[in-house]
Amino acid sequence: MYFRDRKDAGEQLAAVLKQKGYVDAVVLGIPRGGLPVATEVARAVGGILAVVVARKLGAPGNPELAIGATTASGITYINEGVARAVGASQAYIDAEKLRQVLEAQRREELFDGHRRPGLKDRTVIVVDDGVATGATAIAAIRATKAEGAKRVVIAVPVGPPEMIDLLGKEADEVVCLESDPGFWAVGQYYDNFDQVSDDDVRALLDAYAAPPPAPDSTHVTIKRNQINLAGILTTPAGAGPFPLVIFVHGLGSGKDSPRNVTIAAHIVDSGIATLLFDLSGHGESLPDPHDGLGAYVADLQAAFAWATVAPQVKNDAIGIAGSSLGATIAVKALIEGHVKPRTMVLRAPPVEPEDFRRIDVPSLVLIGSLDPLRSDVEWGATPCPQLTLSVVQGASHLFEEPGTLEQALRLTVGWFVQHLLQAPVTSKAAPA
After folding, report:
1. Which value, to the nearest 10 degrees, does the dihedral of the CA atoms of residues 397, 403, 407, 410 take?
2. At residue 11, does pLDDT exceed 60?
3. What is the dihedral of CA 157, 213, 306, 257, to 10 degrees?
4. Architecture of 6-209 per CATH?
5. pLDDT in tens, 90-145
6. What does the DSSP 8-state code read for residue 432?
7. What is the pTM of this model?
8. What sign does the CA torsion over 95, 98, 100, 102 have?
9. With contact defined as beta carbons under 8 Å apart, do 176 and 164 qualify?
């Protein structure tokens, strides 16, 4: 695999990370060459862009040969075998480390200073334009873990297999596009591998930090016979039409559900519009005298029909996100032929096994490991070819436990990106 330049490598790396469902991560580029790559990754996953400076520790008399690396915080990796082979004494290593720590501190302050957020309990993606000895990448991973990151991913376009395996022992996950046994230099895989200057790094960081165009939210009224349903349509910045996710809330909730609002915001950041609306008798929507599941299915039918003719919406790329009772409503509307979404995400769904079997669109089923519904959901959903079951460890029915909503969010956004932003799979036409 070859890359036109670092931007192209970053775009290809970003596509893989987005496919894996990474969103809202802190993306740390290793300057200088890692920053153009990291910029594309941060843009794709909607993350924060900053730097982690890792400086090579040069061998005695041969500063280009790395015996290890260190960071601004003093976290250091030493390749003991190489250090012994070149005769690097402990006194030499200590002096070289001090020199490079001071230079790393100077560069971090030069590049972004206070720009980097706290990493405690965050998912962090460390990015470089490739790895050769792996020294700087290992030092960067260790420094990131020392700051309390919950999960550390190292993402690089290219590297030799033995170094990728070594990085796998340091990071929680390694994403590498090309692990080539014939590797001899990172630049070998780039058509354009020009030097990146300090000014280039600062310009990338400054441009990324500029506030993006705000999404556009509009209050809408969806009419169903004499019932008015209140909704909020939010579209990404830029020109539409956009794919859309319709959220169906649970009993006693509404369009302002904090969990749904949080997930919807990240979906919009990924380039997909969202519609949150109040079921009849909830929030700002009028009640239905025939209150019950049938009325709620009719509500979703009306919302779906409204969306298919909305000019902001791509009517062949609509998904549904149903939570708790909202998942039941979504499934009933689908199997009864009232809606035709491209895909669905069903969170904590109280759905009968026979209804699971009738779902005919690709759907992600999310259930917490502590949810009392778990055994029924696993038994009902596992045999169904259109369903992908994901158990979120440590989550109860409402995903209120620390970190569990973040897991559900990452899975949900990744699923809709995969199924709504990519071209649909062509199927055989139904017989006339």
Report:
1. 130
2. yes
3. 80
4. 3-Layer(aba) Sandwich (3.40)
5. 999 999 999 999 998 888 888 865 567 788 899 999 999 999 989 999 999 999 99
6. -
7. 0.55
8. negative
9. yes
Largest CA distance in the chain: 86
Are domains 6-209 and 216-420 of this chain identical in fold? yes
Taking the chain, what is the end-to-end CA distance rounded to the nearest angstrom?
45
Q: Are 163 and 128 in contact (CB under 8 A)?
A: no
- Provide the token pair at 192: 């354009």
pLDDT value at 215 more than 80: no
CA–CA gap between residue 212 and residue 214 (Å, rounded): 6
DSSP SS3 for 328: helix
User: Residue 53 carries which DSSP code?
Assistant: -
Amino acid at 149: A
Torsion of CA 396, 402, 408, 413, to 10 degrees: 160
The CATH H-level (homologous superfamily) assignment of domain 216-420 is Alpha/Beta hydrolase fold, catalytic domain (3.40.50.1820)
What are the residue ranges spanned by the domains of the chain?
6-209, 216-420
